[in-house]
Description:
With 92 residues, the chain is α+β, with helices and mostly antiparallel strands. The chain is 35% helix and 28% strand.
Amino acid sequence: QLGSRHEKLLSFIMKAKPQIVLHYEPILEFYDQDNLLDYLAYMYSRKRNYLTGFWSALGKLEKEGRAKIMTACRPFIGGVIHEASLIVWRPT
């Protein structure tokens, strides 16, 4: 798990310039911490050191015109505490 240390991963992907990138993993920014189950999932994900700040970093790349986010959603598939979100994007 990368936690907040995803800079090298993003840098590698940006340099490789793939046609499409799919991330299917817990995205902490997608949880609603006012919802008890989401809060528990958020805390579990933090404890497991899942991606933190990744969504914000992708958003920054898109604002800079360096990436295009095609879709980002929480499909509500998986367990209550451990669920993955989907982000589809590409470097520009």
